[in-house]
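Entry 14. Ran structure prediction on the chain below.
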Amino acid sequence: MLATLPEVVAKQRISGIKFLCAEAAKSVEKILAYECPLCHRDFDTLNPLRHHLREKHNRMYCDLCLMFNGKFIGEQKIYPINKIQEHVEFGEFGPNEQLVMPHLYCEFCGKYMFDEDKLLKHLRNDHFSCEICGEDAKFTFYKGIYELELHFKESHIICPDPLCI
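Output, structure tokens:
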């Protein structure tokens, strides 16, 4: 039996997306829903879900993964609270025994970054590198301007004449 036109063009709206069939809409709705993966309670936003996971199930999402791994909320992994630091520092084995890399640590400010690209962007935006050293030191960074000035004094001849500076 052929479907009627209204059934085929059943437009569903989820986050501004239009769907031609209800099945597709339900699939997307499920991965976008703020639903507890353990007890299936629904929430309106992420923060109440995070609070619920912590208080009722002693679990949490990794904040860095939430922000940067590109997965929908329904695809995010939750961790026991006492295992989240292990995930951040050492990574883990995912499906098919594939290593999920750890998050990377900025030794200057004591923060973890999602991956190598995010760490490099952070270092370039929030810390300093020596333009004089060039390619040989393109991945050498200094915490602040004071440390960069020390590097200049120790590694480069800088003319003290105000006309040169």
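Residues 1-14 have pLDDT under 50 and may be disordered. Will compare against last week's run tomorrow.
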